[in-house]
């Protein structure tokens, strides 16, 4: 077996990280627009890659790369800049972007929430209050009504683990809060918002939808492939306190309709029924294995990204396998990629051989999963272009396309051309 004939070879982005135009055409500020000193070097989301104005050029570059799909997020702040008010101009941007993608033969994959909560929603309590569920659903309704004639793939949320733990427990992501005592409420609100959104999309979408969620999926690589160690890695990934805090905490309620230990007494049977509204696929965002975050496991600096993340492509195979074995749903790799200090060379090219190797290593592992019969439906490289990496600012470059932030000039990196070749052969080239 190989990658399926209609495999979604693509790349990903998120609204806040690339669009810029932070206060144009009626958009309200998001919690990231007001992050101020929390962003490295006082950088801001104001202009980013100016994709809002340059989307046509960007889609033309995606077409040049031969992408079959493009995962992006819709900005809640553009669509509902005030309580109860739908902003048609905000929706127009996405209508135009989707038209451009369709004309280029690229399937749009839409994320409904990629962390950019409107400031007005946060002021009312953000994920701490159940009011946010209705606000979110109102926003989702507006988006689905406007775009679902041309969109089949929907993701309700991006990485709930991160926007709840980092934003509201550790306080390291916007809105930079420490709510150690109430964060279970945040999780419950998010899970209910997800389940209700799934039901809503299913009910009102014009084209039969494929609905999923993009998880910060990270699991353990077994130390060797004996049965005992495979089982140990599986247990650590879902049953250890770490696995329970990341993977099963969200996925068990969503897919299995079961409350993990930590949420016992917080989620009622009725809640779980809503939360487990059937979805069609699971999105996995995979960057590095869980193992080395805890114990020194001997990775050298050559096998790390410029952000210090470990490079070990086996984590993609194991995450796909672990998720499939537990949840039995088709898998879409919704993010995978690496930060590197890329620059345009004297010859006008960006020589990022390390990223081309990274892509080969990870895709070879994904191919193993596909070969073994795991239904893998797509791979979205993170990211289509360099962008603002949240609090780390513009220094880490993840893109297939280099951005010169002074001129906004786009240059396809060598890894982009390399990926294009892989796409052309549907992975045969690996
Ligand atoms: C995330 C987000 C992306 C990041 C990417 C690299 O996983 O944090 O989905 O917005 O930019 O993952 O860190």
Provide tags for this entry:
430 residues, alpha/beta, TIM Barrel, eight-stranded parallel barrel, two-stranded antiparallel ribbon, 14 helices, 10 strands, 40% helix, binds D-gluconic acid
What secondary-structure arrangement, pairings included, does this model have?
Elements: E1 8-12, H1 15-18, H2 51-65, E2 69-73, H3 76-79, H4 88-103, E3 107-111, H5 119-123, H6 131-147, E4 153-158, H7 160-169, H8 183-204, E5 210-216, H9 227-238, H10 241-256, H11 269-275, E6 282-285, H12 314-327, E7 331-335, H13 353-371, E8 376-382, E9 401-404, E10 409-412, H14 414-424
Parallel strand pairs: 1-2, 1-8, 2-3, 3-4, 4-5, 5-6, 6-7, 7-8
Antiparallel strand pairs: 9-10
Helix pairs in contact: 2-4, 6-8, 7-8, 8-11, 9-10, 12-13, 13-14
D-gluconic acid (GCO) is lined by residues 14, 17, 158-159, 162, 216, 285, 335, 382, 389, 398.
Question: How does this model look, in words?
Answer:
- By secondary structure, the chain is an alpha/beta fold.
- It has one domain: Glycosidases (TIM Barrel, Alpha-Beta Barrel), CATH 3.20.20.80.
- It has helices at 15-18, 51-65, 76-79, 88-103, 119-123, 131-147, 160-169, 183-204, 227-238, 241-256, 269-275, 314-327, 353-371, 414-424, and strands at residues 8-12, 69-73, 107-111, 153-158, 210-216, 282-285, 331-335, 376-382, 401-404, 409-412.
- The strands form two sheets. An eight-stranded parallel barrel has the order 1-2-3-4-5-6-7-8, surrounded by five helices. A two-stranded antiparallel sheet has the order 9-10.
- Helix 6 (131-147) runs parallel beside helix 8, helix 8 packs across helix 11 and helix 12 packs parallel to helix 13 (353-371).
- The longest helix is centred in the middle third of the chain and has 22 residues, at 183-204.
- The chain is globular.
- The protein starts with 7 loop residues before the first strand and ends in a 6-residue tail after the last helix.
- The relative contact order is 0.14.
- It binds D-gluconic acid.
- Residues 14, 17, 158-159, 162, 216, 285, 335, 382, 389, 398 line the site of D-gluconic acid (GCO).
């Amino acid at each position: 077996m190989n990658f399926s004939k209609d495999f979604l070879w693509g790349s990903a982005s998120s609204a806040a990280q690339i669009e810029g135009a932070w206060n144009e055409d009626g958009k309200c500020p998001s919690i990231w627009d007001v992050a101020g000193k929390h962003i490295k070097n006082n950088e801001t989301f104001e202009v980013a890659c100016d994709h809002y104005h340059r989307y046509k050029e960007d889609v033309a570059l995606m077409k040049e790369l031969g992408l079959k799909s493009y995962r992006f997020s819709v900005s809640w702040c553009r669509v509902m800049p005030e309580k109860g008010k739908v902003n048609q101009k905000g929706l127009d941007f996405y209508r135009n972007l989707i038209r451009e993608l369709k004309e280029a033969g690229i399937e749009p994959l839409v994320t409904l929430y990629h962390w950019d909560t409107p400031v007005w929603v946060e002021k009312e309590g953000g994920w701490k209050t159940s009011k946010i569920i209705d606000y979110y659903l109102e926003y989702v309704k507006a988006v689905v009504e406007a775009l679902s004639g041309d969109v089949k793939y929907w993701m309700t949320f991006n990485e709930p683990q991160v926007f709840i733990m980092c934003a509201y427990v550790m306080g390291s992501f916007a809105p930079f809060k420490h709510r150690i005592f109430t964060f279970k409420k945040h999780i419950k609100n998010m899970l209910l918002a997800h389940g209700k959104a799934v039901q809503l999309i299913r009910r009102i979408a014009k084209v039969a939808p494929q609905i999923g969620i993009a998880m910060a999926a990270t699991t353990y690589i077994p130390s060797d492939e004996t049965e005992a160690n495979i089982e140990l890695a599986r247990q650590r990934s879902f049953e250890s306190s770490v696995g329970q805090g990341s993977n099963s905490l969200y996925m068990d309620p969503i897919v299995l309709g079961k409350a993990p230990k930590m949420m016992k007494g917080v989620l009622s049977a009725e809640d779980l029924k809503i939360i487990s509204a059937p979805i069609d696929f699971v999105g996995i965002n995979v960057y590095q294995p869980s193992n080395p975050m805890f114990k020194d496991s001997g990775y050298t600096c050559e096998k790390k990204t410029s952000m210090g993340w470990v490079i070990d492509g086996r984590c993609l195979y194991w995450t796909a396998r672990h998720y499939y074995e537990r949840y039995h749903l088709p898998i879409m790799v919704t993010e995978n990629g690496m930060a590197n200090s890329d620059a345009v060379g004297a010859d006008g090219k960006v020589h990022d051989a390390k990223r081309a190797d990274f892509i080969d290593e990870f895709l070879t592992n994904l191919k193993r999963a596909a070969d073994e019969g795991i239904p893998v439906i797509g791979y979205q490289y993170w990211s289509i272009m360099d962008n603002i990496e949240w609090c780390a600012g513009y220094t880490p470059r993840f893109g297939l396309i280099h951005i010169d932030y002074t001129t906004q000039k786009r240059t396809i990196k060598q890894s982009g051309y390399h990926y294009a070749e892989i796409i052309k052969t549907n992975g045969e080239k690996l």
